[in-house]
Amino acid sequence: MNRCYDLHSHSTASDGTLTPAALVAHAAAQGVDVMALTDHDTTAGLDEARDAARQHGIELVPGVEISVTWMRRTIHVVGLGIDPGHGPLQAGLAKLREFRDWRAREIGERLQAAGIDGAWEGACALSGGGLVGRTHFARFLVARGHARNMREVFRRFLVRNRPGHVAGQWATLEQAVGWITGAGGQAVIAHPARYGLTRTRLLTLIGEFRECGGEAIEVVSGSHSPDEVSVMARHARDTGLLGSAGSDYHGPENPWIEMGRIAPLPEGVIPIWRHWAGVREAV
Ligand code: AMP
Ligand code: MN
Ligand code: MN
Ligand code: MN
Q: Could you say which architecture CATH assigns to the domain 94-158?
């Protein structure tokens, strides 16, 4: 039997709009058998998600999506199967959240200077007590009519050379992979087609990632086109990385991405779940 794996999703603990329990219920309703909750730089949603997963009879893989600065860009590294109680992982994530808190105020001040009042307060209110990310600023700005949609608001306000941009100062690749593997998890390069890297740069990233102990790339992602899936499948096969698959679901507001609605891993890509306990028969 083919089981449905969705190994990348977000809750209100970071920039998703469903609580961990509601997210798990939604995944179960969508027919997902194995899901990972991978909030940005926090594991705060995992306890609630685990309880909900038990109730709904779906398997929860404890995860996280760590923000990394690599060659002056932001890269995301997903950790799957982590022990959230691992001290160095939590210490590292706490530092990243400290930077996030500082950055949120800084984004607020910069938007203020650009004539937009109350953005920090607005973003905090929308975060519902979870960490504050650019997504919360984006939702605030769209609600105030500064842009029509999320794509436009990021492009006009929240990326390099725009008024609300603050450069990331995240973990190094080595730190992020080290925290994940130290916590017993597997490290995955998230949505590799999203970074605008040349082929050469991407291969450099993959090489360094493997040297640090990274094992997989997301071949299938809600943000990959079919062509990008093929390219990443080839990279996985050529470099010996395992393949992962995840929707990167953030909530029902974005109808383009749905929990569990992801393409199968292409032929010849070895699934990251190949040796997972209890799910071996699924391969
Ligand atoms: P942060 O980690 O706070 O800098 O925010 C990164 C998050 O912003 C990503 O995980 C996405 O959820 C969201 N994001 C980034 N770029 C876009 C975009 N162009 N449209 C919609 N959401 C975006
Ligand atoms: Mn996000
Ligand atoms: Mn990401
Ligand atoms: Mn994500």
A: Orthogonal Bundle (1.10)
Q: Token digits for 268?
A: 């010849």
Summarize pLDDT for 79-118 with one digit per residue, the tens: 999 999 999 999 999 999 999 999 999 999 999 999 999 9
- DSSP secondary-structure letter at 275? T
pLDDT of residue 278: 61
Does CATH number 3.20.20.140 belong to domain 5-83+172-246?
yes
Output DSSP code: residue 156. Answer: I
In tens, the pLDDT along 111-166 reads 999 999 999 999 999 999 899 999 999 999 999 999 999 999 999 999 999 999 99
Report which residue type is found at 56: H
Question: Which residue's alpha carbon is at the smallest distance from atom 18 of ligand 1?
Answer: 151
Angle value at C-alpha 96, between 228 and 262, nearest 5 degrees: 25
Q: Which ligand is nearest to the CA of 64?
A: 4
pTM score, whole prediction: 0.97
Q: Which atom of ligand 1 is nearest to the CA of 74?
A: 4
Q: Give per-residue pLDDT as tens, 20-48.
A: 999 999 999 999 999 999 999 999 999 99
What residue owns the CA closest to ligand 1's atom 6?
A: 134
Domain boundaries defined on the chain: 5-83+172-246, 94-158
Nearest CA to ligand 1 atom 12: 135
216 DSSP β-pair partners: 188, 242
Instruction: Give the distance (Å) from ligand 3 centre to CA of residue 65.
Output: 7
Give the residues surrounding ligand 1 with Cβ less than 6 Å away. 15, 40, 67, 133-135, 150-151, 154, 250
**68 C-alpha to center of ligand 2: Å?**
14
Can you tell me the distance from the alpha carbon of 88 to that of 95, in angstroms, rounded to the nearest whole number? 11
